[in-house]
């Protein structure tokens, strides 16, 4: 039977594939290749999947027999990597099943990065070319399996996709979604002039950064920097800071000034963010410029306000942790649900998110849960500590928490006393042993107080040794009076002097009763 033009095109592309070219003997590249015919059949198997088998025939030309449609990928290039998109004819039922599996894996991967179900689905709908690219990668990786008619399992398919997606995430970071949606021509990527393959892909990331940096550094014929750069400089940013942003997040160099950057800046100013704080926000999270106002940013803000975030303090919240607005609702909900599990009230959850929005970035399983378990093991009220000092839960158990606990235990305090100190002063674990606790403890030993005084007033460790503790205690000794640590450190200078005066008057009254004075 004669082959159709479509069949011949598929076969020609397949034979030109680098994988097949590498398999042909050297002499076949010098002379016209002798093509062995191939018989293609599709067999139905359970679970509505198909298997393609290839059998050589004896005819002098290729004979293709297929009961279903064929798939043809168009070859395209991306940066330094050229992956052929023309491939052998594959039954459409098998391709459909593999495409659905590819979409499922990609959806799962995007959700793992913090995207919501809705956003992930929207990305998938815009990523047909990238899904085709995944399928081609799969076929090239497991070509021998298709040749012998063996179907890939779901685990094998996922095992091929996930490492590839992880490598893309490492290369593109937060720009991965843009890369996937716009493949093979992502924003910020200039098509190579040459379509010849490049074997080394390790240079692609650096070359992308170099082009992005060149884009923000290049002067116009008039000797001026790009309009985007001039705008950012006018905001207070330095050129080197802009380059640092682009180096970490190359897509920033290609954001539209009028459609991306200016609207965000104006929005932040409307929220009350000081103009001087905007450069810091952009440096911390340049990805904010790429977020849709209507689909992501404003709905997320409304969601967080419903959780109790103080809308009057958005300027401070965004300055502290601008990445908060880039997380999915699922990520935020998972964290707040866990806080409820710890016993934190809904009212206090809003306060925690307002004071310490970083809490959303902490992994529940890797950070929050182990830390909570540790505090509970030494009798600390976890819900209370989370409310008073949520940043404590971002500290390392081994490097920060245990050394502080052991510091006090070694100095004669019981576990119960340490728990009481932390309950009264949640920030106790945030202090450095070398720079804070040890020097202040050594000075405390020279003061005329019992160790129990620190259990009553652990806030002692929160005051400056040179500017507060030493001058105040020196003044107490000069006056010859005795005050508890709370009176010495927690009051203002004027109040402190009044307390000293009253103490001296009492001492004088005790020494010289009124009758004797007269």
Automatic annotation (TrEMBL):
Secretion signal, residue range per the UniProt entry: 1-21
Record InterPro entries: MTERF (IPR003690), MTERF_sf (IPR038538)
**Location of the region described as Disordered in the Swiss-Prot/TrEMBL record:** 189-209
Q: Which Gene3D superfamilies match?
A: Transcription termination factor 3, mitochondrial
Recorded GO molecular functions are: nucleic acid binding
Biased amino acid composition, Low complexity: 194-206
Q: Tell me what this protein is called.
A: (wild Malaysian banana) hypothetical protein
